[in-house]
Amino acid sequence: MSQTILIETNEDLKKIFSLNLNTFVGTDVILRSSAEDTMALLKILPQISLIITRAKIKDDETAVKIHQYLKNEGLETTMIVLGECPQLANQVLCLQEPVSWEILIRQAAQALGVSLQDISHRVKPDYLPVGLHFFRDIQKTPCDVYIRIKKGPHEYQFVKRIHSKDVFDLEAIQKYEEQGLKEFFVSKDYIQYFTTFVTNALVQKLERTDLTLEERILATSHGHEIVRDSINNIGMDSSIVDLADASINSMMKSVKDSPQIAGLLKFLFSNKITYAYQHSHLLALMCHYVLSKQSWYRGEHLQVLSFVSFFSDVTLKSHQQMQIGSMRDLWEANLTDEERAQVISHAKDAVAILEANPHADDYIKTVLLQSHGKLDGMGIEDNPGEDLHPLSKVFIISDNFVKILLNPSMPSTKKDILPLLYSRFTNPSYQKIIKALEQKFE
Ligand SMILES: [Fe+2]
User: Fold this and answer.
1) If you measure from the C-alpha of residue 372 to the centroid of ligand 1, how many angstroms do you get, rounded to a whole number?
2) Which helix (H) or strand (E) holds 147?
3) Residue 66 — pLDDT band, cuts 50, 70, 90?
4) How far is the CA of 346 from the centre of ligand 1 (A)?
């Protein structure tokens, strides 16, 4: 789904505009309140397709500032300005006040290349974006694949780039990546068919027994990326459940015969693997380290913790949100109220998503719900208590270890990380878990 930034100060209009943009244009609306927080978001998400902004917020030349930023960064994001803006009148579309929502969504639909024949029906875009990562493990596609080209200042055209019979390799996809392409497009009628084709191909690859450890980790990271992407855009269907299962099994396999951590880190950093997967993989590995030192350890415990590691941050949108490990981090991070709220409820939200996965049993859901030390899955407990499930405790210590390890501004050796954990998690069973981790490294 395309993403649109909306900056509107009037609360009623904000609701009307975002609801209608989402319903009729099929775009994901991200609310922003100023030029500054819009630019900050564009730094992380330059692929935003459309920006709709008030010309001015109080005395601030919001639209002019954003326009200048796009120009400086060479971004081609389309803008629609609400209200008069003489400085931009010849360059972007400025809608006169009062702006009606019908006119706004018509213009937004045109800018996003969506046909809006009948406003009484929910209109889906004719072509849906598919990230390049969907193409890394396939050599052909079951349908034609398009790229989007800017036709006019507010219009796009879709041009066929890969025919359904074409054969291609990873190198060809990497070339597109190097040229700055972020996504291809697939006709909406084929999107389900396409996704199922890709997930089947990847499941088959993950189930192969002849993959090297590196090939396995790479393919698993692709599985993770596709599962996250699909859950956040279209939800979890049976092909995504299958891909998640195959990826979790593959992750467990590679965790069990993992090389030395230094070598693993080097591999994870040098292969364009997402932060989300680096975190999940290392987290499952630390859980495995701790579990292997427990007298009560049974194989299914690793299964539960790998499942939770795989899904724990699935609803979080940014690297910055995933790095947060304490309430202090949360308040100090440069996040909007909405992004903060997503962090606070992410454990609970992940459990809700797993309702659609028949393999997520109550055991898994309990540990996931408690993954930040709260029994109700809301917020982060800085010094969690003894009332949590034993596996939740193992998860929490492992998660915090990995968050520190992956944070460039925090210590990166076990010798420096472990004292931080000892001083934060003061309850006896947590101290024992940290000890188990320490022994594993000795
Ligand atoms: Fe989390």
Assistant:
1) 6
2) strand 145-152
3) very high
4) 7
Cα–ligand 1 centroid distance for 357 (angstroms): 19
- Domains of the chain from N-terminus onward: 3-112 (3.40.50.2300), 126-206 (no CATH), 207-441 (1.10.3210.10)
Those residues with Cβ within 8 angstroms of residue 105's Cβ, 6 or more apart along the chain or in another chain: 20, 21, 24, 25, 116, 119
Strand partners, 36: none
Reported as a single tens digit per residue, the pLDDT across 14-56 is 877 877 787 778 788 888 989 998 998 888 888 889 999 999 9
Rounded Cα gap, residues 433 and 442, in angstroms: 15
Residue 404, CB half-sphere, CA atoms under 13 Å: how many?
20
Distance 400 CA to ligand 1 centre (A): 10
Please tell me the distance between residue 233's alpha carbon and the centre of ligand 1 in angstroms. Answer: 20
Q: How many whole angstroms from 347 Cα to the centroid of ligand 1?
A: 6
| Residue 290 in tokens | 């701790």
Kindly report the three-state secondary structure assignment for every residue of 272-326.
CCCHHHHHHHHHHHHHHHHHCCCCCCCHHHHHHHHHHHHHCCCCCCCHHHHCCCC
* pLDDT above 70 coverage of the chain, percent: 96
Judge whether residue 114 has pLDDT over 80.
Answer: no
**Ligand 1 mean position, distance from CA 2 (Å):** 26
How far does the centroid of ligand 1 lie from the alpha carbon of residue 143, in Å? 37
Q: How far is the CA of 104 from the centre of ligand 1 (A)?
A: 37
Place 154 in a pLDDT band, splitting at 50, 70 and 90.
low
Average pLDDT on 187-204 reads 89
> Ligand 1 center to residue 353 CA distance, Å?
14
Residue 50 and residue 78 in contact, taking contact as beta carbons nearer than 8 Å: yes
pLDDT at 70 over 50: yes
Which one is predicted more confidently, 116 or 285?
A: 285
Instruction: Output the pTM of the full model.
Output: 0.71
158 Cα–ligand 1 center, Å: 38
